[in-house]
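Q: What does the assembly look like in three dimensions?
Context provided by user:
Components: two
Sequences:
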Amino acid sequence: MKSHKSRPTADAPGKAANRCTFRIDREEVFGRPLIVLGDARDMTEKLVIIGNGMAPGRMLEHLLEKTPGRYQVTIFNAEPRVNYDRIMLSPVLSGEKGYEEIIIHGDGWYVRNGITLYKGHRIQAIDRAARTVTSAQGVTESYDKLVIATGSLPIILPVPGHDLAGVLTYRDLDDVNAMLLAAQSRAEAVVIGGGLLGLEAAAGLQAQRMNVTVVHLMPSLMERQLDPAAGYLLQKALEERGIKVLTKANTKAIHGAGKVEAVELADGTIIPASLVVMAAGIRPNAALARDAGLAINRGIVVDQGMRTSDPAIFALGECAEVGGHVYGLVAPLYEMGRVAAAQLAGDDTATFVHNDTPTKLKVTGIDVYSVGDFADGDDRQEIVLRDAAAGIYKRVVLKDDRIVGTVLFGEVSDGAWFNDLKKKAANISEMRDTLIFGQAYQGGGAFDPKAAVEALPGDAEICGCNGICKSRIVDTIKAKGLTTLDDVRAHTKASASCGSCTGLVEQLMELTLGDTYSRTAVQPMCGCTPLGHDEVRRLIKAKSLKSVPAVMQELEWKTSCGCAKCRPALNYYLVCDWPDEYADDYQSRFINERVHANIQKDGTFSVVPRMWGGVTSAAELRAIADVVDKFAIPTVKVTGGQRIDMLGIRKEDLPAVWADLGKAGFVSGHAYAKGLRTVKTCVGTDWCRFGTQDSTGFGIRIEKFMWGSWTPAKVKMAVSGCPRNCAEATCKDVGVICVDSGYEIHFAGAAGLDIKGTEVLGLVRTEDEALEHIAALVQMYREQGRYLERIYKWAKRVGIDEVRRQILHDGGMRRAYFDRFVFSQRFAQVDPWSERVSGKDKHEFRPLAAVGFSEAAE
Amino acid sequence: MSWIAIGSLDDIPVRGARCVNTPVGRIAVFRTAEDQVFAIEDHCPHKGGPLSEGIVHGTSVTCPLHNWVISLETGKALGADEGETRTHQIRVEDGRLFIALERAARAA
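A: Here is the predicted structure of the complete assembly.
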């Protein structure tokens, strides 16, 4: 772009001197009578400004300060009013402010400064040769310097019905007044566009008690300013206020007879609406400049001194394009005003420099801040802080130890500080560990990531499950000389329940014990996320995440659709936490759980029918024998869990095998499941001369009560009728040893990779009580276990005493766990084999096609 | 080379696979979350596991037998593992799937 360095001179001083500056305007259609008293004595140059928005307003302030009286100023404003703060239109719409409160320059300011303001005068033509402008009302004014500040125009989607009454834009006070009028109907409004303006309009209309739906074309809100995670939080915050948000929604048409009645989307959805606000974006209003023959690109092209291709004409504000950028936020527009004023005052060194502008959403109660570039990249790193409970998300994007972008949601007070560091390109490697906590945690010299925990007051609650505060933990560590996490859990109960505060407790241990304690880092679930299983589980509940994509979106998964480690885990967590709402995602299950059989090394499958409590009959055995013959099943074997396994069945044969087994009364034995497998039993009082209880009957009862439930890892049980323990209950996940006085409940045994005897939960008197305890125990494990973590590992993590406290001693908690288990079973106890015999998931068991030699031949 | 119709895209679950039996062996036809389609031999280079039974993520599949991750685009094992499964050309036309069996492949 050519730079105009030649200093402008007053090339027609005589004209200005002849001009009368005392004027009484007639009352006009669009304007009000305006009396301006001015003094022409020192005015040697005439400055005409087209437009009276915030940018030229700021320019005038600077100009009046730098060279008061140098210019005789005339403003033509197409709007019939003074300069007001357009940024504050949203509070006017929501009713938080009135128009009078957002006026920047009242009528008196123009009078005091000798400025002529034509209200409601739209300039129709610029005559660059004659250096005049002419308004629609026929007023012609000559200029020495002209400033074009015509702003921008809202983009009107050219859909059918866009010109119906009731379709508005959101640019000026007239729009707001029209919206306020429409809002009185308390009816339905649709806002098209989920950017800054659209969302502010939506919030404002909602505050006026309209039912508002935001229709947004892109997958997440404010996608130009926010990353998907923040966009998602924003959407949720808006939805919590009752604003409906439809993303990926393409407006097809606006319907109505004479006035708006509904909006139709491309997918056919019809949304009733009496008001439609188009907030799909803006474009520079450069028509007047184009007609005048000035250089135009997206906007009016100006150099860094805000000069257009005509050295006598400046342009600034949203209509101007400088260095290839057009702007819509106030900070750069004010900067343009400063530069233009300096240039007009004769300082030709003043230049406009592009700076990333922070974005803030002006919706009361929703704090969003973003600045810079926050796209991922190989050369970039990010620091992310999330606090689900407090609704806080902070993300700082780094490149070469310098901040290049920041997105804040919920807690934005450090936005300016981050932006300052970014602007200064400050090297943050020294404070990297604490950067995300913000300025308050950057002490002098020594940076300590534990500062946030250290700064907590003694009565701050650390463990929400058990109500344990910071001082209690610290005091106990000191008083009892505790050195391990398990000790702290045992003595304080902190982090002994859901475990989500473990990190905090460990930081407190580090603070109290110094270097003698080193904590174990949280193991991420997989390469797709830095979050550990516990944190993911906690966030699924806290944020009510109810689908795999929602979890990945909200928790910012690094991969598009996860991996073979996290997907099955997430699917389990969702099945467990939302039994009635979540639709099981079979494509996220291992093949065994997808086809309800166990895959073998050669790609065939094994099938284990359920034999309740390990008890069978001649009819069942006969049916199995028939199936083995009919399908030429190569191997039949008795399993360690007292069941019969048929191995080597071709996948295509599975439905037919199940059909035959089903006719004999068999259901799936779930030998493939991360779920309840088997309940082994001995013969108990029915036959055994030592038996103390009906262990067989109780085993069958447990199995019939608990089959079908999904668990973090497989659950194997056993019931022995006496302490001789023939069912080997003391190495099971859950076991029962019957004694004369009742039922001794065991858990957390192992006889696989590890060998471990069970722990005793306690002794209960009746079978009913035993069942309630066992179901509650399993439910506690279901809710807290990490995927693939067997009960004995979970129990070690949580603490045996803690399990005992919640299940054995706290009847209320036990009952609550039990009730949740029962609720979950309502949706779980469906025999997957009979479902598939009836045709479910047919595609799983058939090839897509068979191509013969003839088809393959060319 | 000739294109052989094998069915339609809708026959394959999203993030799933179906098999086509051919004279050159069983071919697994995958459909990703983004509706990309790939055809590779249903045979893991490690121990011959049926890749069509694996979990599909991105443009990869994890073998159900020993968790090798195979790229659907190249047929190559990803990560530290080394090995390669033969890929086949496939195209989608109006939701219909066509597979091409190469001469070399058939000769094998």
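Follow-up: Residues 767-784 of chain A form the longest helix (18 residues).
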